[in-house]
Amino acid sequence: MMDKKINYGSLRMKAGLELHQQLDTTRKLFCNCSTGMKERLPTATITRKLHPVASELGMVDIAAQFEYLRDRSFHYQIFNNETCLVELDEEPPHHLNSEALEIALQIALLLNCEVPNEIFVMRKTVIDGSNTSGFQRTVIVGINGHISYKGKRIPITQVTLEEDAAAIVGEENGKATYRLNRLGVPLVEIDTGILEGYSPMELQDIAYQIGILARSTSKTKHGLGSIRQDVNVSIRNGPRTEVKGVQELGLLSKIVEFEVQRQMKEKPKEETRAANLDGTTRFLRPLPGANRMYPETDIPPVIIVKEYIENLKKNLPEPWTNKLERFKAKLRLPDGLAREILGSEYLSLFEKIVSTKKVEPTIVANAFTSVMKDLERREKIEITRISEYRFVEIFDCLQNKEITKEAIPEIIKYLAAYPQNGVGDALKELDLKPLTTADVREITKEIVSQPNIKFEKAYGIVMSKVRGKIDAQEVMKIVKSMMK
Ligand SMILES: [Zn+2]
């Protein structure tokens, strides 16, 4: 059981957040490979051994050495269209992807950062095998930013654009296998300053706000692993531990709580830990030292022209923090639903429908979130088979009162089964013409006249005859009133 009485203030809990968001560009950061990560089967696997080298600054990094001591061999899976000689470290990197740079700069501006006049590509030592070269390329695109949270200023120390690492597939007997298709996918890292005086739940909410600001560009990837959080925690000015790879944002507060409890019980060490699925953490490696960065000599610096930044500033997308507030205030969506639709791949379709049709936004948002998830889980239907304009058609019918909102799940189910058919066909075949209260009274009259029938039973029978054609609350009212 979790101790709810922890006083984080008196423990002087300090935390820092590091958020990583993959960008949805066509090409990778330093080569022309696709960022799709759609290929399932590798075309080949190559084997390597990695050796840490003293960086230009002298010392061999202790974290790097630690990984080296583990003496592993690395196996890299290669994918068609998604891997080339750059990922294999057999060819120098191409120039920095300008599409990725522009999105990263927009994110930096949305986080109120100062943008440097010149962009330098740096190398960061990474020797766990997730980069074939033994380093990760990274560029600072913004510093000294901030966001507001409950009237307070949350410092954003820096925003960097970097190459994502290869994803680990598995590790056995010192053999680690990685998928190279993720290596080089553009990734934006956002770091906060030290946050003190916030509860674990508030830290989670701050991470959420930063995440949706990054996604305001609409050029970010969706789905598991596309956004990853690291959080570092210390109490009583003690050593700082870093928990890496939190993929589920809802776990962040739990991880912070567990980490504080762990540090209260045992003497904390400066180390990097990995997040477990239940919110607990496990030791990964010592914290990396300071000598991790050195210049990338293969790529020339990029000059950032002032007019270009002024133009980006003028044309920034609406911050999703505003959009969230607008959905709640103007569209009257409850907080949870507003957040859900914001995270949905149907966001733009939702916005299009509620701005052009006279329909209740809550009904539309529900259809694109819980109704669809439910249908996918229980009925195993493939929503992706339905074209966008079919959804527009559904809400046209709802606006024109040709259907009730109860008919929506049945229609979606039908359209997924017969993608070539339209909503009109669904209405004909499913007999979903709305019923009036008079119609329902007629049906109910016969059923409640049966001797000794109980309300639940009568309601059940009526519903089985009218489901999808009238509001269930309405049916309940009618059956109740007619049983008196
Ligand atoms: Zn490539």
What does this structure look like?
By secondary structure, this protein is α+β, with helices and mostly antiparallel strands. The protein folds into three domains: 14-295, no CATH class; 320-430, no CATH class; 437-482. The protein has helices spanning 62-69, 98-110, 200-215, 252-265, 306-314, 320-329, 335-342, 347-356, 361-378, 388-399, 408-417, 423-430, 437-448, 455-466, 472-482; strands at residues 14-22, 44-48, 73-78, 118-119, 121-125, 135-149, 152-163, 167-172, 175-179, 186-192, 195-196, 227-234, 241-246, 271-275, 281-286, 293-295, 302-303. Strands 1, 5, 6, 7, 10, 11, 12, 13, 14, 15 and 16 form an eleven-stranded mixed β-sheet that branches. A four-stranded mixed β-sheet has the order 2-3-9-8, with no helix packed on it. A two-stranded antiparallel ribbon has the order 4-17. A hairpin with a 2-residue loop joins β6 and β7. It is elongated. Bound molecules: zinc ion. Residues 28, 31, 33, 83-84, 86-87, 184 line the site of zinc ion.
